[in-house]
Amino acid sequence: MTAASGGHRRMLTAGSLVVSLCAVLGCAVPSGDGRTGEEQGDLTVSAGPGVAQVVVDARALADGTATREQRARLSAATSLSDAQRAALDRGGEAVISTGQMDYLSGLARTLDRDGGLAAFLGFGGRDAEVKAHLADGMQILSTPRVRTGSAEPGEQVSSGGTSGHDPVQHRRGGLDALPPSWAAALTDSPVVLRREAAAMPGFVGLTKSATRTTGLPTIDDLGVISEVLGHGTDEARRGSDIDRALIARAADIAAATNDPALRYSTPAARSGIEPTAIGETLDSMLAVAGRDEIAVHDAMMTGRDGRPEVIGGMPEGFSAPVDMPPLGHVEFTAGAYDANVSMTALLSFDWDEGAGHDSGMRSLLGWRGETDAATGDAGGPGRVATRAGETAGELARIIADNRRALVDVEPYGNDSAAQLNPGVWVAAAAVVGPHLISLAGGDTSAIGIDGARRLDGQHQMTDLFVVLDMHPAPATTINTHGADAVKHLQQKIGEEAEFLPNGDARATLESHQMGRITLGMQSGLGLAVTELGRDGKWDEALGYLREGVLAEGGTVLRPEVDNVPATRDRAGDDGGREEFEALENSVDFRVEATKRGDAMLVNLLNGYVKQRPELRFGELAPYFAADGMLTAPDAPDARDAFYEIADRAVGRLDEEVIKGVETAGANREW
Fold first, then answer.
1. Which of 560, 638, 642, 634 is nearest to 601 (CA)?
2. In this model, does residue 279 exceed pLDDT 90?
3. Whole-number Å distance between alpha carbons of 421 and 350
4. How far apart are CA 441 and CA 461, in angstroms?
5. Is 50 exceeded by the pLDDT of residue 42?
6. In what residue span(s) does the TPR repeat domain sit (predicted)?
7. How sure is the predictor about 31, in pLDDT bands with cuts at 50, 70 and 90?
8. 466 near 531, Cβ under 8 Å?
9. Can you tell me the distance from the alpha carbon of 620 to that of 645, in angstroms, rounded to the nearest whole number?
10. How far apart are CA 198 and CA 207, in angstroms?
11. If we measure between CA atoms, which residue out of 369, 636, 591, 641 comes closest to residue 490?
12. What is the pLDDT of the chain when averaged over all its residues?
């Protein structure tokens, strides 16, 4: 639809001009009650400007001589209304006029004929507004849930053609709607291998072993596409096939170039390109596509068993053939896109954080901590929030299922993915962390978090923590979320606890979920320490063994040493190995909030007073803070008195929670 919707960011002209332009383009005009004329059925519009007019507009806009009306036509054609964007956010379809689709297609094909990708790159010169319109238009043109017409029940809507024998044409956006230069760059294999035998000096007929060059035939074009789209706004990023393809192609290239020892070439750099330059282009691709939450959702889901429903299909992925010839030109083969393979390649790529080339990957991960109640029913998470949970849940599974590949990244020797890119993995931990209760089988829809499906068993929860614990920064993030989840569950247990006439307590299923998370935290850190020690990373391992995992509010995971003194390596010539070997099998990690007494009692009691509000006015009254929560006093005598009261109130419940945690630890499959 058009830029005429109320409050739209690009309202360039007076309302009368936009209405008249909409009549020319064939777009829908917003009515006073927020519905478009098409939705009310009271507006008949024309087929839009002719091809000749689009060509004239395109060339005038390209060279900076466009009139006010031409600029307004561009604005109208490259915009979606609030209602259309909301429909796409819900996973539905946005219907645009034939005139708007014709304008977008004509603009793209005119530029393609006038100079290919270079014409798109130069379009608008230094006019940022015109460049933004072009970028948004290309996104709309490639969105398969944007279509023309209004299909009747049972009517088959085609992609780019007619609907049966019906004279009304119905066209969809998508890769097929793009001009040839864009479609080729986004769908061709981005990688080829060249194996050549070098002659051995002084020995006729004898050759050295084959040298390998990895050719990247489309990376320059993908970089141009990313630069063009980088001028756009998030309003048009609603599940475009361009964004899906950019993610898929970035993963293909990342999987094939994650080795600094090999040679890489591009059409613009036939003699060789540095891996850092490859990373910079991949970063720009993901910086664009990572802002399209629907495309990212589908990139995390596609190809995974049991995953939630996708909104649109991912393009094929490319990989090296199984049977590699010893010499010659080797084309990568196309196959079904697999989120497991593609996401692991992106997560383990060396993003050169020092040069700032990790921002695209962090963008890919960054939106999933948010919720959007606007698309949901009152009191529950919206569809966008649910989709965020689905994405976070599949990301957690991908991380857990690929522990080995992410803990020891080839060809980087002993480095893990988290050590290569700690900033990326902090972002991953921040995405997954809010969904730990859901991953453990709990229900968090009441607090606006939904969508993540339960993990299959304790092995996945533990492996998730192992990968994230391989560097202290993501370890702090994920374990802080874990501690917060445990605290929330303990309060929920207290709120729903049932005390029997004999004084015994009955804990809810939240104690099992709490056990799954705490066991994942404790076992995960222990296994990460073992991995770090095996790789000779004594400082990192000893940091955990001496101090556990620290957060801003204090220790989250505390090491408990069993009868072995923490002797420092006095010789200093083995880098800490002696101390590591002394401590490794003598330290257990404990989540602070799961120890009997102290923190657990406070959390259980804060939940319990919600079902027993009269406790606020009894002997516990002095211990309520200004925020209405119980807080243990600092003074030793006062603390003892407080815990004596707390133990009388919920002490039996404390014991039941411990039993639930132990039961969860005994059941490896959920």
1. 642
2. yes
3. 7
4. 11
5. no
6. 76-354
7. very low
8. yes
9. 7
10. 5
11. 591
12. 83
Can you tell me which residue has the tokens 């015109």? Answer: 130
User: Which of 467, 342, 345, 348 is CA-nearest to residue 417?
Assistant: 348
State how far the alpha carbon of 363 is from the alpha carbons of 351, 357, 398, 413, in Å: 13, 11, 18, 27
- pLDDT at residue 162 tops 50: no
> Cβ distance 284 to 250 under 8 Å?
no
User: In Å, what is the CA distance from 214 to each residue of 219, 261, 272, 284, 325?
Assistant: 12, 11, 9, 21, 14
Least confident of 74-83, 368-377, 477-486: 368-377
Beta-carbon contacts of 389 under 8 Å, excluding residues fewer than 6 positions away, are: 381, 435, 438, 449, 450, 451, 452
Q: What pTM was estimated for this model as a whole?
A: 0.86
CB atoms closer than 10 angstroms to residue 569: 17
pLDDT tens-digit series, residues 68-87: 999 999 999 999 999 999 99
Distance CA 557, CA 540 (A): 15
Q: Where are the beta strands (DSSP E) in 216-346?
A: 263-265, 317-319, 328-331, 333-335
pLDDT digits (tens, 9 = 90+) for 294-351: 999 999 999 988 888 999 999 999 988 877 776 677 888 899 999 999 999 999 999 9
Residue 458 has which token pair?
A: 């304790």
Identify residue 654 by its one-letter amino acid code.
Answer: D
Q: What is the largest CA-CA distance in the chain?
A: 99
